[in-house]
UniProtKB/TrEMBL annotation:
GO molecular function, one term: DNA-binding transcription factor activity
Entry annotated with the keyword NAD: no
Name used for this protein in its record: DNA-binding transcriptional LysR family regulator
Similarity comment: Belongs to the LysR transcriptional regulatory family.
One annotated GO biological process: DNA-templated transcription
Superkingdom in the source lineage: Bacteria
Protein's organism: Marinomonas foliarum
Residue span, HTH lysR-type domain: 9-66
Keywords, comma-separated and alphabetical: DNA-binding, Transcription, Transcription regulation
The keyword tRNA-binding appears for this protein: no
Matching InterPro entries: LysR-type_TF_proteobact-type (IPR058163), LysR_HTH_N (IPR000847), LysR_subst-bd (IPR005119), WH-like_DNA-bd_sf (IPR036388), WH_DNA-bd_sf (IPR036390)
Amino acid sequence: MPINNRTIPSLSSLILFEASARLGTLTSAANELCVSPTAVSKQIKQLENFLNTKLFIRKKTGLELTKKGQIYLETVRQTLTVLAEESKKMDDKVSPLPLNLEIGACFSHFWLIPHLDNFRDKYPDIMLNISINNERNMSEVNSDEYDVAFYYSSLKTSYKNNFLLFNERMLLVCSPSFLEKRPECHNLESIWQQPLLGLKDAPDFWENWKTWAAHSAIDYQEPLNEIQMEDQIAVVHAAQNGLGIALAWDWHVEDLIADGSLIALTPPIECKNNAFFLTRTKNANQYSSECFIDWVMELVADQKQVAKT
């Protein structure tokens, strides 16, 4: 049923009426609301004319509510309270909307999950919905399926809502037990005779053993003994268990090298074709998405600073 606007007084007159009744004088209401006493008096008179009844009895000592004014004040207070509370709920900073994240399995496993408790401590009211997708195209920036997404893409990708997280840095890693068993694996000239671990059916633009060899100025050869796996998580896990030498991104294995689970056989090599990004859709909830992206960028910057020291 449509609301008859002609029967509803102005919001400003109701606010002034409530303040005048609560404080007892027009001057006090004017001071609280930063308006002139004349403006308050005019609004109250307009409200009384609109309602066709007296709300106040004007006395030398101040204002006294009429019986109808007392009844109306209760209704106005309840209405203004409900309106204020419901309006507050609309503020994304007070009640932020859930944030839909679409991320790759590696970003989830190696970076986000280990740090996510920090985000929850900092933003306990932001609920995260996380889905895994390793194949979304970077150009799909208006999707309704996510608010913030993590991508591995070409450095030539240009979009104002892209945020560069990690430049691509590759290195070779193996387990301590593997190195003890095969100390000769430090010799990169014989790397192709060692048990290697790689990705199966990776996209053509991804770095791989062949491109790593080119970056390292080493002649590429078909590995004599390679286990191929469908994702990088499995590759790193296999390396941890002594199955071979893995080609890994530095941010995947930093913590594992630090805790001794893996050993770096080579220093990281800077690959200048691709990088890892966060991106935000145009329709994303602004407050929640900005909080998440700012948190990620700040934490990544801190980690880079620690790595330099």
